[in-house]
Amino acid sequence: MDELFAKAPIKKVYFKLAFPVVLGMITTMIYNLADTMFVAKTGNTDLVAGVTIGAPLFTFLIAVSDIFGLGGSSLISRLFGEKRYDLSKRISSFCLFGSVIVGIILTILLLVFAKPILILLGAKTSTYSYAFDFYRIIALGSVFIIFSLVPQNLIRTEGLAFEAMLSTMIGTIWAIILDPIFLFGLKWGATGVGLANIIGYLVTDLLLIFFTIKNAHYISLNPKIMKISGQNIKDVIAIGIPGSITNFAQSFGMALLNSSLAAYGANKVAAMGITQKIYSIVILVIVGFAFGAQPLIGHNYGAKNWQRLILSSWFLMQLL
């Protein structure tokens, strides 16, 4: 690992880390488009609008996941550079199990306050039942969504970008396969769309756990070592919360927009939902390239290898 991050050519290391992330993002984009196509093919604008109304919940859960995934991976990368491997294991355990605990708490809160949240998101009489069906499944699967992005980010700090990508791709492919089966074959409507999503995340989670146990040396799934100091928690949150603000803001913006459009009818909300998914294509690719550099920059920052840190940062700025 030290050989890869500290000595290998920067260009080679970057693309070794970045390409799998970008490919994983592209797979997610394909699913977003396929999901939109399948739902639109029903010809039911209320169903499309209902799923669109529930979409900000997804973005919100990803933002919560970023607190542990981005915050934890940034700190662990620096600890690897400092060769503090024991602490990195404890930090990873805290992030992994912390995300599960937060996911369980959010599931309870989201279900208890489902009606006011859906009304706030813009659900009307014609779209409420569809929005609730989708929302309920996503809320029940909150743990799987929040957890999935944490090991993805953490194992990349050990250079396991391919394993992270493979887990994402396989889970997404499962979701793409199940979507039309649940929607058209079993006629489960919005419930089927949500269930296909959650099963895809569950498959991804199981694969990430497998690769973490099999290939990661300093990322731990041992709950007995998840207790860390208050300062360590602050270090995770200090990076995680700013890193998640973009998704929090996007979730709020989507909710506000959908709520405003709801007054003009379900077809307007449905059209905006399709537009938002197409717009996300460019964003996801850029995010993928940016995420690829994080382990490299973090490792060299921790190792105080300033020359390589500057060269890595300069290379990334030129690329993007």
TrEMBL record:
<feature type="transmembrane region" description="Helical">
    <location>
        <begin position="198"/>
        <end position="216"/>
    </location>
</feature>
<feature type="transmembrane region" description="Helical">
    <location>
        <begin position="278"/>
        <end position="298"/>
    </location>
</feature>
<feature type="transmembrane region" description="Helical">
    <location>
        <begin position="166"/>
        <end position="186"/>
    </location>
</feature>
<keyword id="KW-1003">Cell membrane</keyword>
<dbReference type="Pfam" id="PF01554">
    <property type="entry name" value="MatE"/>
</dbReference>
<keyword id="KW-1133">Transmembrane helix</keyword>
<feature type="transmembrane region" description="Helical">
    <location>
        <begin position="13"/>
        <end position="34"/>
    </location>
</feature>
<keyword id="KW-0472">Membrane</keyword>
<dbReference type="GO" id="GO:0005886">
    <property type="term" value="C:plasma membrane"/>
</dbReference>
<feature type="transmembrane region" description="Helical">
    <location>
        <begin position="91"/>
        <end position="114"/>
    </location>
</feature>
<dbReference type="InterPro" id="IPR002528">
    <property type="entry name" value="MATE_fam"/>
</dbReference>
<feature type="transmembrane region" description="Helical">
    <location>
        <begin position="134"/>
        <end position="154"/>
    </location>
</feature>
<protein>
    <recommendedName>
        <fullName>MATE family efflux transporter</fullName>
    </recommendedName>
</protein>
<feature type="transmembrane region" description="Helical">
    <location>
        <begin position="46"/>
        <end position="70"/>
    </location>
</feature>
<dbReference type="GO" id="GO:0042910">
    <property type="term" value="F:xenobiotic transmembrane transporter activity"/>
</dbReference>
<dbReference type="GO" id="GO:0015297">
    <property type="term" value="F:antiporter activity"/>
</dbReference>
<keyword id="KW-0812">Transmembrane</keyword>
<dbReference type="InterPro" id="IPR051327">
    <property type="entry name" value="MATE_MepA_subfamily"/>
</dbReference>
